[in-house]
User: Fold this.
Amino acid sequence: MQGTVLYGPWDVRFEERPDPTIVEPMDAIIRISAACVCGSDLWPYRGIEPIDGPTPMGHEYCGIVEEVGSAVENIEPGQFVVGSFWASDNTCPICRAGYQSRCVDARLMGPEGAQAPLLRVPLADGTLVATPDIPSDDLIPSLLAASDVLGTGWFGADAAAAGPGKTVVVVGDGAVGLCAVLAAKQMGAERIIAMSRHESRQRLAREFGATDIVTERGEEGAAKIKELTDGLGAHSVVEAVGTRESMMQAIRSARPGGHVGFVGVFYGVELPVGELFFAAVHLHGGPAPVRRFLPELIELIWNRKIDPGKVFDLTLPLEEVAEGYRAMDERRSIKTLLLRP
Assistant:
């Protein structure tokens, strides 16, 4: 098959790769219906995260099961499935506590390379969730979003303790941040403040449930949040970028006793412990345990209660994946959907 391989900064190629095969008894092979480019893919694309030679790319996926290993019991060929970007057994004590991304046998899906027509999914019984039937084409973007950005935004809002009567601030207007807005709305937040400087993203944030838009950043942004909340700060803040500035903006936007859910992927970020000590806020986050939320998210999408697929504002054939990377790197696209030929 042909699949996506990153050779180095700015060098994405769509080239011949071996077809995936069953390696372990708990594996499944799925034929990808749609894949996409993730904001975290831009870290190695820009050279910020080093890679060791040519690297298959992609960790968000949905599609139809073609083959399963001899030990797979719950997933069958012919089913349409959605999986997390972390493979997990979903049975260990950590998984049962709801943190499947830190499973004792967690496997990051990135090395498998989901930006390709076929994908091997390890730990299939614990990782994959089947939809009630084969979905219509218009549902596939939203089901794909559940694989990562929706599940990650949902975890960010959950970690920030979003809920009825709360004011929720979302720092970051990428796909994860926008999905955090959607999640906060579903969780019953009273007020949702999206921090964004981009009109197209502001429009989608409002469509997803944002009640206010704040364009200021950094200390000015945090001061604006305090101004909007009677000088107190927000009950809940979601950090969905992954820089020191965004994290400090999130912490400074929260009231004492408030909650910050951080889900942006960080590289080389250090935080001032002294300021954290006196902020008196709850910090919770990390790699999103998407598998915990997948059954609920699939049900909401299947019943057309939510439409997170709207975060995809550029659709390309899989073989044009390099343009998808360029478009997201240049901020011409919020998130690029890749369709299999």
